[in-house]
């Protein structure tokens, strides 16, 4: 019952590269669960990645970003591009369960074989959300999706890290919610390439637009080649004819992508992505390997008890463990 | 290793608009620690199964409150088979006469939870059938 | 020990009664003294609780403003409430047959309900309709279907409630009037009602068919048309019942129901109608749930609130405008499939509450509501439930028999107070339309529904058969199961296909163009819908034409194209 994973990494990888959705889905699960076969699998997958357009979209709940993404998917499908979507939703802090409701907003694509949607709860991923999402995006690339959209709330540090996987980062704000100020504090403004001012039909929209443009022109972006743009949109309307700004948004996304490639900034972006990935994988693997020696010995518990009793501290413990580990490695 | 999370798809099918129970079950399964993907209304057997494949779901929960349970169940089960989802648990909730329950089970439903079901029973059943088994 | 624990033990030791527990059961007392909606009660209410009562101002006699005690002075002495069982299954002919059966067995008002496909505005041959035609009501695709539904029933001798709630109510009205005129009836003399409350229906599904602006437009077209042409017709039954079925409390039911009513009233006034010209025909659909005293208080409060609203906010002068006219549907969500015969008892109590509260028209659920459509026997039992109350219990002797009870008057005040709080909350988020548009109301319904389930899970609320005195699940339904014949469904689909192939397309096109023009010019669309119906336009064609004018897709499900392009 349930997700039976008797299939080998080789078979899964082979299936994935052929575009088999079930293989992709299972691989993603293995990665989420930090299955021991995951790394082997990712090795097979990795060479087939690195060529997709990766868009990150972050915004508070109620900002309309899911509806916006629904429109974007449609536009990219109109360009005959396959689209993969990673929808990261918040988990309930009390039980770790997640109600992943974004698919409800993606109804127009519920039968499109050229769209692959995966919901991820921001659950207690051992390696952190960023590690899991990084691998998931790689899997979606290898599957053949030319465009990958990562959607997050941008609520915590974890989710901000997720956005570093993306090449073009969108921040979705709405007028009058004061979240333009909040976002500045959270550090998200610094990474946004495009700020989407959604629900532009609400009161105070124009003022909000102006104040955002002012903030941007006070030069908080480190990248001198691209000034973040503000795009007003109305994503959610009862009639499709009342939806506004989506074409402009797509144009701006393509403009940013063109800029990245023209200026060779894309290489820097790719470099940073790999650097982050390396760091995340390194941290995970080192932790696993180093603590492997302690497994089953009860030593970890002893260390923690001794720290609690005031007889030791975390820094000395780590030094000691590392020293032992390295000594053993060298002796080997 | 992280404890395996049970992933559940909750969906309506067809035109039926009674979604109170589906939403309540989705929320409460979430509180019980499961990852729930809520699909909402106007789903077809195809769109439900597509989501189940992509999300690598352990469980599909479908909600019937307009007498459509005998019509849609075989279509959903057929679609599941077509996509190799034989090992995915299929449960149904809502309103249907007890006389139809054996037929629904014959068609491929693993268990039914009609109105008046208590959350604990649903959670227990799913955890037992689909919960954290490692190979 | 909780009731659940006792019953679990009982189940286990079934053949051996544990007499040691007898005294414990004998001395058992309730663990909660709250009403169903969660309000604390005192153990006794006395005149002190009513000190300073101003009877004439706050309560009034039955038939006197603010109508707390009832809208007629003599209530049931003047006329029994209408016994109006909801009927709808299979084909128009099937539904006609069951409606006639109910009348034969003592029903006094006709009540037919649309199925999900009709409410969506889909013809039976629509790809999304094919699996679901006739499962929960009747689909009327064109004038011939309406003719079959009506059959030999003399429209000037009956009162007919047509339950189409969504924007499709406009089509229903057009179809009914078209047939009535063909049969030579003077429609100004016809009695009945059409539910016509598309705003609330978005909470029962049907959102693709009921965008807010179109709901207000078509809903108000029906209201305006009936106000002008059918003075004996009730052109709306604002449906608080369905809202209550979402899991909300009694005062919330009134608050949100009155809020939705306000949307229609404001529109009609904007169109230039005088409040007293239409308000007397404004009606409501109200739930009666299992806490019978709270439900009675709720309804008395609703009457008082409506009267004040009409007089103070809208300046009504005609007392009939201030009368809260309502039908009751006993609460479907109070019934459970476990031990189904218990539902007969619940329904009886709820029906009693409705009568004690002074209802004008009553539908009793069939006991098998949580499982299937009513069988003939189920419908019969529902009718008998009403008849026993009417003819045996004596509660009809006196108007508002519970009026003056210290508890009931206090609880009525409490219901009003709480409802006003909930209405203020809606005002604070920007008004009802805003609360609907931003899905604020959706979130409220979802929160309340989760609360209700947790109450059951944690045995804060007790339901016999569910969390106390449970049994092995039964395998059969006591009075049988109603099935919908495949033949009926196929005949419906074939019928509309044949009709579409055999029409005078020129005549039809002309009529559809007129409808499109009227919609585009902001005129009332019902007259043109009637003409188009006469020209054999189908339900989806009537509604799709207006949808397009308003910028929506012809087909709510976005599959079928308009044949009139």
Report on this model:
- The complex is a heterotrimer of chains A (332), B (135) and C (565).
- Chain A is an alpha/beta fold.
- In chain A, 48% of the residues lie in helices and 13% in strands.
- Chain A is built from twelve helices and eight strands.
- Chain A has a seven-stranded parallel beta sheet with strand order 4-2-5-1-6-7-8, sandwiched between helices.
- Chain A is globular, with a radius of gyration of 22 Å.
- Chain B has 135 residues and is an alpha/beta fold.
- The mean pLDDT of chain B is 93.
- By secondary structure, chain C is an alpha/beta fold.
- Chain C has a domain at 47-429: TIM Barrel.
- Chain C contains 22 helices and nine strands.
- Chain C has helices at 3-12, 22-26, 55-59, 92-104, 116-119, 143-150, 169-182, 198-201, 212-229, 240-244, 250-270, 275-278, 292-313, 342-356, 376-392, 406-428, 432-437, 440-457, 486-501, 505-520, 526-534, 539-549; strands at 82-83, 110-113, 159-163, 191-194, 233-234, 236-239, 282-288, 325-330, 361-363.
- In chain C, strands 1-9-8-7-6 form a five-stranded parallel beta sheet. Chain C has a four-stranded parallel beta sheet with strand order 2-3-4-5.
- The A-C interface holds A 238-242 and C 211-213, 550-553.
SSE blueprint and pairings:
The complex is a heterotrimer of chains A (332), B (135) and C (565).
Chain A lengths: L8 H9 L3 H12 L5 H8 L7 E7 L5 H14 L4 E7 L8 E3 L14 E7 L7 H14 L4 E6 L4 H7 L4 E6 L5 H8 L7 E4 L7 H13 L11 E4 L13 H17 L2 H28 L6 H10 L5 H18 L1
Parallel strand pairs in A: 1-5, 1-6, 2-4, 2-5, 6-7, 7-8
Helix pairs in contact in A: 1-2, 1-3, 2-5, 5-6, 9-10
Chain B lengths: L6 E6 L7 H12 L3 E6 L4 H10 L4 E6 L4 H14 L6 E6 L6 H7 L3 E4 L4 H12 L5
Parallel strand pairs in B: 1-2, 1-3, 3-4, 4-5
Helix pairs in contact in B: 2-3
Chain C lengths: L2 H10 L9 H5 L28 H5 L22 E2 L8 H13 L5 E4 L2 H4 L23 H8 L8 E5 L5 H14 L8 E4 L3 H4 L10 H18 L3 E2 L1 E4 H5 L5 H21 L4 H4 L3 E7 L3 H22 L11 E6 L11 H15 L4 E3 L12 H17 L13 H23 L3 H6 L2 H18 L28 H16 L3 H16 L5 H9 L4 H11 L16
Parallel strand pairs in C: 1-9, 2-3, 3-4, 4-5, 6-7, 7-8, 8-9
